[in-house]
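Note to self: keep these together.
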Amino acid sequence: WATYLGIESFGSLMVALFWSFVACSTSPESAKKGYPFIVFGAQFGSIAGPTLAANASVFGVQGLMYIGAVGIMIMIMLIVYYVTSLPPHLTGVEEENEGKSAKKTGVLEGVRLLFSHKYIAGIFCVATFYEFVGTILDYQMKVLARQVYTDPVSFASFMGQFGIGCNLSTLLFSLLGTSYIMKRYGLTFCIVLFPTCVGAVIIVVYFYASMWVFFA
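Structure:
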């Protein structure tokens, strides 16, 4: 449980930290062009990791955990280097202008923005709704898979196959679909389409609750 919570928490914080760096150092115009390619590049790592897990019989569960621990240590060192060595305009950590005091923000600044901007609140609701649904569906799939793959190695291999399939589809969609749909139909359509697709998934798994349906 400690390992699971540590990995899940670190993964969530790392992704948020990465995008905070990117958002602070890019303009909206470049973001529209560059974000899909960032996601595209990230999928190679997202596929490489599950590929290792799919070969759990070779590395062993403990070996996979050691590989993950080394990866986390490397990322921490890279972040320290990134913040301390690169120019402020590349990291988003801008220095205060001479003669001006920067407006200080507290730990509740995000909450204030959430309730003062309907747009941000809408994004929050969409993203949070998906996280709830995704977590429940993911858990249900794992429960069913655990009944089929009873030993840790075979279960890890199955989850590796799931990670490969999930991230490979994301890779293809980020390359071929994201930018086109955004340009063709606009942001509002995409934001509405997202929970609509999630709702369709819920209906399907409600009537066909099998392990491979959850997998798909």
